[in-house]
Amino acid sequence: MNEISSLINILALTQLSGSNTTNQCNCTYNNSSGFDMIMMTLLKALSQNNQHTSNSYNLLSNSENLFNELDNVVNNTTSRFIDVDTKDKNVKLRIENAVDQASKKYNVDSNLIKAIIKVESDFNPNTVSSAGAKGLMQLMPENCRDLGVTDPFNIEQNIDAGTRHIKEYIDMFGGSIEMGLMAYNGGPGRMKSRGVESISDLYKMPKETQNYIPKVMKYYRG
Question: Where in this chain does the record put each Transglycosylase SLT domain (predicted)?
Fold first, then answer.
């Protein structure tokens, strides 16, 4: 069922992208054929599970839950305002201003920037991950070096660099936000080594990345 769950996430992401729509990242989508392909793969996976499962009732029950989960994600596709959830008014104001400036500077939707920050650090500028990623948008040391960040805990530096970073990845993958997020979390090198060529290959990435993209898109789309 894990494989089917991954396909559900991918299918939801394909729907979230819309059909022939353009967003503030200058990202254009046309996922009709991709949706059909993923749907066929999903149905095939369900069929295979049915052949190898002794208790068909449990399979149908699990499948129904997965489709309900998909329905919830797909039906919540309207972009909304994301509030900066922090009690420190000064930090809140600085984050809001930095996001606004970075959004205009790099032409990235401010809601997408906030969605990434929400998932990465929950708006805590002092967050440090076990892997060594730092600050609001969780920049790794090599990212800081390449992006010219001298203080990853500085709100303005971190958001400017993180936004530039995600913009580079979105552009790298032809305007796809989902593919950009996959690279931001999992790394373009890993994507290449695992043969990831489209969002339908998300299942090839680690579970962390498989979960990361739907989380960000959920906040981004509301």
Answer: 99-193
120 tagged catalytic: yes
Q: For 12-33, what is each residue's pLDDT tens digit?
A: 565 555 544 444 454 434 444 4
In a domain, 112, yes or no: yes
44: left (phi over 0), alpha (psi -120 to 50) or beta: alpha
Residues 103 and 177 in one domain: yes
Angstrom distance (rounded) from CA 222 to CA 213: 14
Residue 20: which H helix or E strand, with range?
A: strand 19-22
Domain, as residue range, for 27: 2-74
Angle between helices 56-74 and 2-17 (to 10 degrees): 20
- Antiparallel, parallel or unpaired: β 19-22 and 28-30: antiparallel
pTM recorded for the entire structure: 0.67
Q: Is residue 165 assigned to a domain?
A: yes
The 3-state DSSP composition of the chain as helix, strand, coil percent (nearest 5) reads 65, 5, 30
- Judgement on whether residues 99 and 206 belong to the same structural domain of the protein: yes
The pLDDT tens digits for 54-82 are: 444 554 554 455 445 444 544 444 445 67
Count of the separate structural domains present in the chain: 2
State the CB neighbour count (10 A cutoff) for residue 182. Answer: 27
Q: Which residues contact 197 (CB under 8 A, 6 or more apart)?
A: none
> What is the C-alpha to C-alpha distance for residues 129 and 150, in angstroms, rounded to an integer?
18
Does 203 lie in the same domain as 112?
Answer: yes
